[in-house]
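Homework-ish question, so no full write-ups if that breaks the rules, but can someone show me the predicted structure for this set?
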Amino acid sequence: MSPATLFGLLAAALVGLGLYGLIVRPEPLRRILAFNLVGAGVFIVFGVVARRGAVDGLGADPVPQAVVITGLVVAFCATALAVTLLVRLAAKEEGGEVE
Amino acid sequence: MSGFLLVLAIMLPPAWVALMLVAGGRASEHLAHLFVPFGLAISLVIAALVADGGPIIYFLGGWRPPLGVGLRADGLSAAMLVMTAVVMAATAVFAAPAFRTPEGQSEARAPFAFWVLLIALWGALNLVFLAQDLFTLFVALELLTFGAVPLVCLDGSAATLRAALRYLLFALVGSAFYLLGAALLYGAHGTLDILLLAERARAGTGAGITLFAICLMVAGMLAKAALFPFHLWLPPAHAGAPPAASVVLSALVIKAPIFLAMRLWYDIAPVPEAGATLLALLGAGAILFCGTLAFQQERLKLLVAYSTASQIGYLFLMFPLTGAEPFASIAWTGGVLHLVSHAFSKAAMFMAAGLIAEAMGHDRISGLSGVGRLLPMSVFAFGLGGLSLMGLPPSGGFTAKVMLLSAAVAQSAWWIAVVILLGGLLAGGYVLRLVLAAIAPGPMPVPVKAISRRRELIALALALCAIALGFVPLQPSSLLAIGRPGSWEAMP
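A: Not a homework solution, just the prediction itself:
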């Protein structure tokens, strides 16, 4: 099995696990973590795709790597925003505000 | 030279936001109002130039794709830019009294956040409409999400935080699907530029991957656009959001993913008939299911929110109807016209609903009898907006629905024609619920708060925009066909 196939399968497994978590798990924190699993899977796909550049004698194609770096930053920001919302929500609910 | 305008349209808002963050508080509020004429002027000038001289193209740093990144304004993006600018400008005027920094304070959380996010959203929307590569579009979509989610929970109560979290998760999963599709497209074709992708997809290699990738990306966009059955996040998000935020969210923010789905579908590679039919089926589900739910709502705000989830469905009915020459078809013009007129009418209706709720202190429809005498202009704006949703002439909604209907009949897609008509009936039902309550006889309701005439006029002006769109000629629009199918070569 070539490394590319192996990484592809790994990415598929991560995306699958993440989606399973998103659909089945109602707890918000688990959903945030599940989203991060999906994200990791997608970034690995980009990593595999970047290897295509190796054909032209380059170590790797830089475009997908640039996308992954930006994607990581965005996923980090999204997670931070989601966790902030969750912490606020938990504080409100502890404080006895019932809707 | 005109290419510079595109840069201005996407760079001025973020630069302004940076300025507003530094200025802080009351100064940022003034800065936001100051931005409105500039933003409006940029979009109008771009639209005028496109209508006059064809697509505007700008290459960042002078590098052409595939090495560089290009910006491009065609007829469709011009229409979207103007729609965004008009609704944004109206929202800024409408929101001014509600988000004024209180006297004696230099900064208050909600007003500061609102004005910063409003300008940020404007910039993100402009970027969605002008960017031409999947990567920039990904960034634009994320900017849009990060701007829209906090608007949902400006109030800060537990219910709005929960709604914001749910919206964020839906939007993020949509982005993940989009990004996965982008990775596969890059793997198959070695570029992220939409126009180059289209060229290489036409060459015929990797057709299966292209199809799969586009399906993934469109699915992601459906989650962001709240198309049935992904509409679950939309009503709670609107329930607690301030009216001005609902206007922007419902009229503009959910239109960006739909715009993108249209571009992926029509500009990269057409998806086979089965896919188009599936989208139309989901659209039909949205129209009927969410329309029925809208009819059953107790609260006016939620009625309007479910109506948005229902009207989104019409935009997906166009996919199986556009035929072999999509950009010259009447369904294409009808779909885009529906998108624009829905933006105006729904903005007017959310504003009117907000004003009614503010004046009465609540928005339970059963308690709104006689409100037509208290706020005649708001109820009139709501009714005019509703006229367009129902598809009664003269209104943009009428013209759009007639176009979709005639395309459906011409192609013997009878079930689509039936859904369009049923959707109109449902819209009539839920719009009349408020109108009938408002004109019911009885004592004049006692307002808890006085409403300024100016804010009512803004709602009415937007509703009149939706009506004015009804005078668009009933034929495929030449503006919307400008620069389609797209090419980087079409430089003047």
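Now go work out the reasoning yourself. Hint: Chain A touches chain B at residues 15, 18, 22, 28, 31-32, 35, 38-39, 41-42, 45-46, 48-49, 52, 63-64, 66-67, 70-71, 74, 77-78, 81-82, 85-86, 88-89, 92-93, 97-99 (CB under 8 Å).
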